[in-house]
Amino acid sequence: MKEKKLTTGAGIPVSDNQNSLTAGERGPTLMQDHVLLNKLAHFNRERIPERVVHAKAAGAHGTFTVTGDITKYTKAKIFSEVGKKTEMFGRFSTVAGEKGSADTVRDVRGFALKFYTEEGNWDMVGNNTPVFFIRDAMKFPDFIHTQKRMAQTNLRSHTMWWDFWSQVPEALHQVTILFSDRGIPKGIPYMNGYGSHTYSFINAENERFWVKFHFKTKQGIQCMMQEEADRIVGENPDYHTQQLFEMIERGEYPKWTFSVQIMPEVEAENYRWNPFDLTKVWPHADYPLIEVGEMELSRNPENYFAEVEQSAFSPANVVPGISFSPCKMLQARIFSYADAHRYRLGANYESLPINRPKCPVHNYQRDGSMRFDGNSGASVNYEPNSFGGPKADPAYAEPPLKISGDADRYDQKRGVDDDYIQPGNLFRLMPADEQQRLIQNITSSLQKVSKELQEKMVKHFRKADKDYGDGIAKGVGL
Question: Among 31, 276, 289, 434, which residue's Cβ finds the most Cβ atoms within 10 Å?
Fold first, then answer.
């Protein structure tokens, strides 16, 4: 069969569909990468009206309370003093399933938090895992397609999963977590949350620090074994949703400890891992957790659609003192999430009550679908103007982000970014019984695919750890 040439929708040939265009090997993604932007924009519009991913979710209101002083790292007012409380809302989801799918499936969980600060909304849009399957958003639509349904049968396919993962070894770390005991939480209160990406803190002296966010459950990590989860799927597909709602109704308010890892800006260049690689963690021995505060969920929604379904989170929503990093996935999410909400909910989605900031909002955005307020009345809608319209404040400018290197599509599969070390370390940290359950969970899935894919994956697992790979080889009969 003659090989087809990949093109854009306009018929323009694509030179690279695996690597984003960046300023230097570790630098930020460039806006001129129209292939990436078109790919993400089209992906955001593939399904209506539910979210493309994270469609099934539960949500609750709560409070964040500062318990530790980190003002030397960040000027964000949410952290300005110990004891300060901030209202927040959380949405907790599965990733792959549709809106009516079951809760107790093996899947990554979304962990999205909206903090209504006096400087605007801070959205911490993370997962219950500290890493992800890929590190470049160019691969994201393709990866999610493997988790969805086949074009002909409308069935999910283990072959699609393992075919993709067999050719993307960077996924091995997240695959190991997904098929471990933590792949099926006992409930939303019994799982951790992570920002996953590297972000940045900026302090009052305009110094930048790299930071990772951790929300550790105070109820303790609890997980379901596969057999129990399978049974509950048939008995109550809304098990986690119901559990969270009823716990809060009983006054059993779930809590999480919020901590950060801090890396001085200068240390990133020579750290043993690329600190902006979403498939890597920073070992706590290198950068220990610093406790910041406590999050408590204490109020259920009054209306699911108005509060949970219409809630919209975006990593672009950061407040002064919190900012971004050159993480390729984060750079794309800054664009992609808000774009998806504008498509799904409309141009004025941030004016909806659940998304509306609790601080004053002044801008020149007007009109658009579903504009339900006064549309700023007769006030001027352009800038510069002579009529007292809002103006930008240079005091909020961030320090320059140092970048270097030529703009190119850099392959991330070489050098210190060894994709097998951390998953191997994780396997060796597990007790023997958990290792066996991990191997059993993987082999149960791999038994449904071709011998060729099994052999490819066994090679990857053996590179991480020989016992890991040998156990899976034995399990699938190789």
Answer: 276
